[in-house]
Fold Phosphatidylinositol 4-kinase type 2.
Amino acid sequence: MEVDTDDDLLESTNEARSKGQPPDVTTNLPQSYQSDEPNLKKPKQTTLSAKMFRNGEYQPLLNGSDGNVSEAESADFVHLSCNHFESDPEFNEIVKKVEYAIDHNVLPQRIYEGSSGSYFCKNFENKTVAVFKPKDEEPYGILNPKWTKWLHKICCPCCFGRSCLVPNQGYLSEAGASIIDEKLDLKIVPKTRVVKLSAESFNYLAIDRVKSRTKQNLANRFPNMRFDRIGLPPKVGSFQLFVENYKDADYWLRRFESDEPLNENEAKTFQIQFERLVVLDYIIRNTDRGNDNWLIKFERLKLNGTEELFKGLNCKNASKNNSVVTESSVNIDEIKNETDSFQREPESKEEQVPQASKTSVIIKLAAIDNGLAFPFKHPDEWRAYPYHWAWLPQAKIPFSQEIKDLVLPKLSDMNFVQEICNELYEVFKKDRGFDKSTFEKQMSVMRGQILNLVQALKDNRTPLQLVQMPCVTVELTKLKHHDKHHSSLQHQHSHPSARERLDSDVQFKQSFHSRSPLFSCW
């Protein structure tokens, strides 16, 4: 039995849409499947037209088999996309490719590690491009497929959850960490946004699957019947881009101690990246940072001795007379003499280290698993939730000038800090359980963390000394009437800031948090 091709189905569907009527899937079926008697029962459709309804609502299938999804093709998705990132076309394209792959049965794959339901999202070529963490499958979500947290709740309810965190908002925390990373130009958090996806591989209630199958069966049987949505309901969650060639920090930290010790330049590069992780974790007050949930990318370029020699000579001669040394134009004796003089009379400290050693290594960090951050109060009950990087030897080295130049001018400006708060508000307020007063408490904790960080950078302290500083909260309060009048008089005699964002009737109230948790590490 032969059926029409995808192009014929697409053409007939578009013609029906242009006339304002829902597409009739029976028009392109073989004659034996069509009937002039409307009361006769038609056999179950197993052709390509039936697949249209199994995947979406009255949407034609896409032509072609490659994973490159253009803007024109995205309008014809079977998947009813509610994800639009017009300001970030590159990220938007990745999301569209994942939706395209899901519609063509390349489903997200559950990650079996961890204590929540998270998924590797793939494109049409079956390549992992992102990690999706649905809200209702978080560690304390109602549809978490992992039984460990359920057992924890049943056996030890008094210690269940983290009392300092807003429950079931980990996906917002993931997106918030990405915002702070971008604002401070840290470049260690893979880009993360809040999206909505639906797929058969996600964990759904049985009633949702039954309703979905019922609607699809009705759509197959009665093509003219309209539904608001056909298929499983979309899940809101965090969508984080996947990073390649990274390994757990614990793996590389052990190798750095024994098998592959870092030289001076490599240690300096790693220290700068490490300090960026410290800045991020401290600002968002990450309560779940171990050495197994941040990643390190470490690659050494394998250069033989001849390549290192010519690379060093090229760099030296280029700095002197802009000449390029090549293997065919230099005599072996000249190379030997040049090398001896290069080793005997270094012009500066930079020449004592071969130039190849500076460019032959790649060290990058990736801060993932930021879902247990942004508390509305400092931990003060059972556990302190320490930063595990505080026990590393890198935490005993004072902050470098590079990190000071990067973040100190920004964090010293309270208007810039308020910009961060405003951007976080735009993301957090989309949650159904959003509470503005709780959000203000979260921002008070974050401002206090920033205040401590700025002071530690100015005092040339170490990351270990930073985490030992007293906990502070900085609240934003309204001025009283007479204080407001006095402030307005002072404002008239001062030069207004060109980048003023804070209202003139607000002030900051600083308070110290003296209560310590039962099990404290500091």
